[in-house]
Structure formats: structure tokens, C-alpha cells
Amino acid sequence: MNENILVDKSFAFAIRVVKLYKYLCDDKKEYVLSKQLLRSGTSIGANINESQEAQSKNDFIAKLSISLKEARESKYWIELLKETDYLTQKEADRTIGDLVEILKLLTTIIKSTKSNLKENNAK
Q1: CB 3.0 to 4.6 Å from 87: which of 40, 75, 91, 104, for a disulfide?
Q2: Four-residue CA torsion sign, 85, 103, 36, 10
Q3: CATH class of 5-118
Q4: What is the pTM of this model?
């Protein structure tokens, strides 16, 4: 089986976001901010999955760039939920910790793919 750490981590993050969304709705009665987080947090993995069947390197970069934007947006919503007392510092830190790993992986992959693309185009 072909292991892809980015696919695995983004899927695990999506699961965490869905569970967090349920918690925020059921226990905290918060529906607006949590819905925004649900959309952006699950979109990360969906776009990463799409990138696995990209039609070109540019398409691959575009899909991962969308994931990167969605990850940054998710971080914003988590921080906002923390600052408005819907999440504790500990809850926010754990979720952001997972997200930071994904952000680093995405940034590295995008940069290296762009660099490889430039090198191949220069030949």
C-alpha cells in the first residue's frame, strides 16, 4: 500500500474538525464559526486528494495551494474560537499543532515542486 503522509495527516485533521464541529454545536451551541471551520478544515484534505490525480505539475501545485489557503483559514477560525472562549487554550493548541504540521508539509512540497518545474523548464 502506497503511504502518503500528507494525505493521511489531512484526513486525520478532517476527522478532528468534524468531531470538533459536533462538540461546538452540541455542547457550546455555536453554529456559525464552527461551520466555517468545518468547511475549510475538511477542504484541506479534499484538495490534497484531488492533487493526487493532477493533470500536470501546475495543476498539482494549484490544488496544494488551495489546501494551503484552506489550512491558513482553518487556523484563523480555531484562533477566533479560542479567543471567543468556545475552545480552551489546550483544545486550540492541539488542533493547531496538527494543522502546523500540514502547513509545513504543504509549503515544502509546493516549493520543491515549483523549483523542480523551473529546473525542468530551464533545460
Answers
A1: 91
A2: negative
A3: mainly alpha
A4: 0.93
